[in-house]
Design brief:
D-glycerate dehydrogenase, 11 helices, NAD binding, Rossmann fold, alpha/beta, 32% helix, binds 2-keto-D-gluconic acid
Length: 325
């Protein structure tokens, strides 16, 4: 039996430091505890707020018998054991819909930067080596008129497709289920995974991380891509086998890559990928804009407070969703 005095405010364990917007929205509605409070029943925990993807597994949930809600700041819930939460009747909330545009924008930023050698060009333009303009140097790959393959046509994938149309690209996609209404509305083509890899000049990964997508882009998949192709990943690092990608970028199996996520994340500072000029890398910036982060804060705090009050969450993760840390 819990003999400890109950706090008048619900206690929420969060991995921080939290964004000031989140802190302002929480105000004094909850008592914030450090994530370490999840390690044992030193203090009762009423809610979990996952900010930077800490793992929430069955053992942790068993240690927190008073838990009423898990609220995730973000859409991906691969760090949360959904089956374990559902089995214990604990609702999980996330923030779909509010970050699609920002993440699709970043996918395009990476696509353009990797194909037109923007980062490499920036380095060269600042270096002492740039002493005279050479029209024959630093040629890149053309974006307009090329074919884009989207792996995972969810909300973010669809936003990527809309941007590609503006760039006069032909778009094919692969998804667990074909989406005929989006196909018809945007003029997309459904492809098998193998066909998409073989035909695309750009392959953009927009899938969630699940047992089906872990290691999806391995040496075999990379070998099916064009030697001129560019791979972009804005989903989760483990969808790509890191060592296989490094080998492919070194050997010219593919031309270039743009990664917002890696496995591990961050990469060790001496990792071979960090030395590759044909890689553009960002530190998980998909949703990192002021406006999007504010919306994520609002929705995740609304989910948290609703769950603590025993109310339906504004944005619940379906209990059958796949999440397994
Ligand atoms: C966030 C994300 O940066 O939504 C997601 O799944 O990965 C990103 O939008 C992240 O959730 C914040 O930690």
């Amino acid at each position: 039996m819990d003999t400890q005095p109950r706090s008048p405010r619900p206690r929420v364990a969060a991995d921080g430091p939290l964004d000031p917007t989140v802190l302002a929205l929480l105000g004094d509605r909850v008592e914030l505890l450090p994530w370490e409070a999840t390690a044992g029943p030193i203090l009762p925990v009423d809610g979990l707020y996952t900010y930077g993807h800490p793992a929430v597994d069955a053992e942790m949930l068993d240690r927190l018998p008073g838990l009423r809600v898990v609220s995730n700041y973000g859409v991906g819930i691969d760090h949360i054991d959904m089956a374990a939460a559902s089995a214990r009747g604990i609702p999980v909330g996330n923030t779909p819909g509010v970050l699609d545009g920002a993440t699709a924008d970043l996918a395009f930023a990476l696509l353009l930067a990797a194909s037109r050698r923007v980062v490499e060009g920036d380095r060269y333009a600042r270096s002492p080596a740039f002493t005279s303009y050479d029209p024959g140097s630093m040629l890149g790959r053309e974006v307009h008129g090329s074919t884009l393959g989207i792996v995972g046509l969810g909300r973010i994938g669809e936003k990527v497709a809309r941007r590609a149309i503006g760039f006069d690209m032909a778009v094919c996609y692969q998804n667990r289920n074909p989406r005929p209404e989006v196909e018809a509305a945007l003029g997309l083509r459904y492809s098998s995974f193998e066909q998409l890899l073989a035909e695309s000049d750009f392959v953009v990964l927009c899938v969630p991380l699940t047992d089906r997508t872990r290691g999806l882009i391995d040496a075999n998949a990379l070998g099916r891509m064009k030697p001129t192709a560019v791979l972009v990943n804005v989903s989760r690092g483990p969808v790509v086998v890191t060592d296989d990608l490094l080998a492919a970028l070194r050997s010219g199996t593919i031309a270039a890559a743009g990664l917002d996520v890696t496995d591990p994340e961050p990469l060790p500072r001496d990792h071979g990928l960090l030395a590759m000029d044909n890689l553009v890398l960002t530190p998980h910036l998909g949703s990192a804009t002021d406006r999007t982060r504010r919306r994520m804060a609002e929705l995740s705090v609304a989910n948290l407070l609703a769950g603590l009050d025993g109310l339906p969450l504004p944005s619940p993760v379906p209990p059958t969703a796949l999440g397994s840390p």
